[in-house]
Structures are given as structure tokens and as C-alpha cells.
């Protein structure tokens, strides 16, 4: 109902009479009044003038589910989105929902996280109303050893979305750091539930710094607002990221990992560089020369031996 009211008021741009509005919604004037007040409580500025009706003055910078659904171009990704003003971590909530059978494409989004987590046990700072923090449930029909491709797919989708909305060229540092001018703008956390070799579900967690200013950025990181020198619509970015994730997911299903890797190369800054890798298994140094079809980074060490790294952190040597 709220979604419809906002849509009608947005379309009209001027005053829409109570009669017209309640008629279109098929509810009584009294019920309409309750919905209008509910929207006001959510932060919508709706003017009400006797004999004229209602006018939408401004919308709040919030990522309410019904706002996100409006104008969303996807078939399933983000079509069911569970919104929280605050949550410990969207990863845990999404995992619980997935365990209970939530459909592919279900998303959990929070305006802030009190225990947002990054890779390798790091903390993900999630200042309120500044960034995007969401987790998406996927149920791909792939084996566990091929699952890393999903992280690359998410990176590509974020870069494409930001290019489309803001015209900014972001970069990806393998496997999942989203960078701008060598500063971290976002990250992707992929958590997998698998049985034997078969993936049960994958949760992709996306954290993006959008409207952070220097006070809410940690050192070495940046935000889209900083890059553009203006406030950015979190809503537009979120909707486009959902869309690109869905498009690329279908490309992966239809054409296989190669198509995603080709796209990934366009944004990658890791290939051709001398790197040091730190993972729980090994410490390795050499040239990162390619990506394997499962998303693993191929590194040639100084003895000419090729190693494939599937997870870990890399440092550029020069
Ligand atoms: C990284 O770069 O280390 C990955 C960061 C991923 C952060 C996101 S924010 C939404 C989701 N919920 C979490 O607790 N983490 C991910």
C-alpha cells in the first residue's frame, strides 16, 4: 500500500485529492489518512491541504523495501528484501533465512550493522545511512570448488552498476576489494553452505561506502561521495547492483565462468603485478599472471612454478 501511495504521489508531482487517492487504492479516506501518517513517521514529508489533497514534498534517504521495489529492474534479485534499521550482521540473518528455505534472490539489508564483518575475521564499519550493507541468497547449481566465481561476479556487478549510475571507473583487487584511486570503496564477503561437494546456498555480502565523509571513513578507504564530490543516491546504486547481479548470474548460468572472468579482467588491477599472498595455507611471492576458470589467482613464482590461490590476501610488491 505504501509503495502505491508513493508511486501515485510521485507521478502526480502536484496535489492529489484524497478522493482520487483513496479511489485508486480502494480504501476509505480514514484508512488512507492512517497510511499517510505511517509514511510521515518513516520520514516522508507529505503536505496535506484541505480541498487540494496530498503532495509529496520529499522522500527520506532510506532504503525501505517498498522504495527499493519501485523501479527495480530485476525478476527475482532484491524482489524480496528484508529491511532493518539496525542489525548485528546481514550475513547471519540471510543465513538463517536460507536455512529456513528462503528463495534465491532474497536480500537482507541494514542501515547499520553492529557486528558487520569482513573477510579473514575483520570488522566491517557500517555507519548508519551512509553506505550499502546487504546480503543476497543464491542457490547456484555449481560444485564447491567452482564457488569462488560468485565473488568475482559480485565484484563485476558492483563496478558495472557504479559505472552506469555515476560514470565512475572502479577497480577490483583480487579477490574482492573494490577500489577507487587505490583506496578501498567496498568489499564482498562470500559465505557458503555446502554438503559434500554440492553447494546448498551462497550468501553474498556487499559493503559499499557511499555517502561517507572523512569522519565516517577509516584510513585507506574512500566513498562514492568523496569521489564525486556530491551526495550519491544509495537507492539508485542498490537497484542497479541488484540488476547487474541478476544479469551476470544469468550469464554465468548460460555461458559459464569464462564470460564472467572476461568481464572481471576489465576491472582487475591485480594481473601482471608482482604480489605477495598471505593465506592460512601459504605465503607466496610471484607474478599474478591470470585467473583460473574457478576464480583462483594464478601466480608464477621465481622458479617458474605456477600456484593457484583460491583465498587469502594479496600485497603488491611494486
Ligand atoms: C571485505 O572486504 O572484507 C568484505 C566486507 C563485506 C561487508 C558486508 S556488509 C554486508 C554484509 N554483512 C556483513 O557483516 N558483512 C557483509
Label this structure with key terms.
elongated; alpha+beta; 7-stranded mixed sheet; 32% helix; 318 residues; 5-stranded antiparallel sheet; binds biotin
Describe this structure in words.
The protein is an alpha+beta fold and 318 residues long. Helix content is 32%, strand content 27%. It has nine helices and 14 strands. It has a seven-stranded mixed beta sheet with strand order 3-4-5-9-8-7-6, with helices on both faces. Strand 7 and strand 8 form a beta hairpin. Helix 6 (149-166) crosses helix 9. It is elongated, with a radius of gyration of 22 Å. The chain starts with a helix and ends with a strand.
Amino acid at each position: 500500500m505504501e509503495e502505491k501511495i508513493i508511486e501515485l504521489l510521485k507521478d502526480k508531482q502536484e496535489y492529489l485529492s484524497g478522493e482520487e487517492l483513496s479511489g485508486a487504492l480502494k480504501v476509505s479516506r480514514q484508512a488512507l489518512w492512517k497510511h499517510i501518517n505511517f509514511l510521515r513517521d518513516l520520514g516522508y514529508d507529505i503536505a496535506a491541504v484541505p480541498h487540494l489533497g496530498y503532495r509529496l514534498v520529499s522522500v527520506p534517504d532510506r532504503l525501505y523495501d517498498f522504495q527499493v521495489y519501485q523501479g527495480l529492474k530485476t525478476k527475482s534479485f532484491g524482489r524480496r528484501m528484508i529491511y532493518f534499521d539496525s542489525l548485528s550482521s546481514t550475513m547471519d540473518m540471510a543465513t538463517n533465512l536460507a536455512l529456513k528455505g528462503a528463495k534465491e534472490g532474497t536480500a537482507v539489508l541494514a542501515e547499520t550493522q553492529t557486528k558487520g564483518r569482513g573477510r579473514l575475521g575483520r570488522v566491517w564499519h557500517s555507519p548508519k545511512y551512509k553506505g550499502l550493507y546487504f546480503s543476497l541468497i543464491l542457490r547456484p547449481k555449481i560444485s564447491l570448488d567452482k564457488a569462488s566465481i560468485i565473488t568475482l561476479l559480485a565484484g563485476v556487478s558492483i563496478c558495472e552498476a557504479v559505472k552506469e549510475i555515476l560514470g565512475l571507473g572502479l577497480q577490483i583487487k583480487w579477490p574482492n576489494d573494490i577500489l577507487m584511486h587505490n583506496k578501498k570503496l567496498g568489499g564482498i564477503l562470500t559465505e557458503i553452505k555446502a554438503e559434500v561437494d554440492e553447494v546448498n546456498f551462497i550468501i553474498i555480502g556487499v559493503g559499499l561506502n557511499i555517502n561517507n565523509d572523512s569522519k565516517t571513513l577509516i584510513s585507506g578507504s574512500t566513498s562514492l561521495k568523496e569521489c564525486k564530490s556530491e551526495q550519491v543516491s544509495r537507492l539508485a546504486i542498490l537497484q542497479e547492483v541488484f540488476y547487474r547481479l541478476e544479469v551476470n548470474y544469468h550469464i554465468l548460468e548460460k555461458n559459464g565462468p569464462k564470460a564472467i572472468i572476461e568481464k572481471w579482467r576489465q576491472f582487475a588491477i591485480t594481473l601482471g603485478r608482482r604480489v605477495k599472498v598471505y593465506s592460512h595455507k601459504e605465503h607466496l611471492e610471484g607474478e599474478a599472471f591470470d585467473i583460473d576458470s574457478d576464480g583462483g589467482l594464478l601466480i608464477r613464482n621465481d622458479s617458474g612454478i605456477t600456484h593457484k590461490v583460491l583465498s587469502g590476501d594479496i600485497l603488491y610488491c611494486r
